[in-house]
Amino acid sequence: MQLHEETERDWWEVEALYDLCFAPGREALSSYRLRDGVPPVAPLCLVARDRGALAAAIRHWPVRVGAAPALLLGPVAVHPTRQGEGLGGLLIREAMARAAPEWERVMLVGDAPYYGRFGFERLSGVEMPPPTNPDRVLGHALVPGAWSGVAGEVRRWCDGLPPETRGPILPE
Ligand SMILES: CC(C)(COP(=O)(O)OP(=O)(O)OC[C@H]1O[C@@H](n2cnc3c(N)ncnc32)[C@H](O)[C@@H]1OP(=O)(O)O)[C@@H](O)C(=O)NCCC(=O)NCCS
Predict the structure, then answer these.
(1) Ligand 1 binding residues, C-beta < 6 A
(2) Which residues contact 82 (CB under 8 A, 6 or more apart)?
(3) What number does CATH give the domain 2-158?
(4) What does the pLDDT look like over 77-117, one tens digit per residue?
């Protein structure tokens, strides 16, 4: 299994994997509104290939919770023929290891029974754009205590900032 950063050449194959793994209309989900017009965090977009065949992929986007920068984990998907082999866990752990300590906190919208094993817990006071079930809004501190006192609306990385100060996709 080879793990590497996603390149431009991987993009459409990863999109096809997401189409296969998620329900139709995935791009209507509120989390996609936070990705519109914002480049992903390239070093944290990873693909796993087995003898060339795409087995799994993960992407991350930058967001702001109130004024605090955070990573939005996802989408993450494992090809149906490769699920249950630990690839999802491998990608999530590897991305978090690469993200810290530059990024202090990561969040997602997903199943707590799955993401709990990676240290994700329900975030109270963190509001995703509607409609989102608050029980599925989960966070993990990459630096101890990074979520304490962080609350408010989750916004696109560039929202509320003048264009000249939007800058590269890096935590502040
Ligand atoms: C969810 C997904 C990424 C997990 O990847 P994976 O490589 O299959 O999972 P892993 O091998 O790392 O872990 C397998 C374990 O996770 C559990 N698991 C998988 N999906 C789960 C879910 N949605 N809720 C709870 N547990 C889940 C399995 O039951 C298994 O449990 P076990 O270790 O006790 O046997 C993958 O199944 C997938 O792509 N699913 C479709 C797309 C999707 O739902 N993405 C996540 C969006 S929130």
Answers:
(1) 21-22, 76-78, 83-89, 110-111, 113-114
(2) 50, 55, 56
(3) 3.40.630.30
(4) 999 999 999 999 999 999 999 999 999 999 999 999 999 99
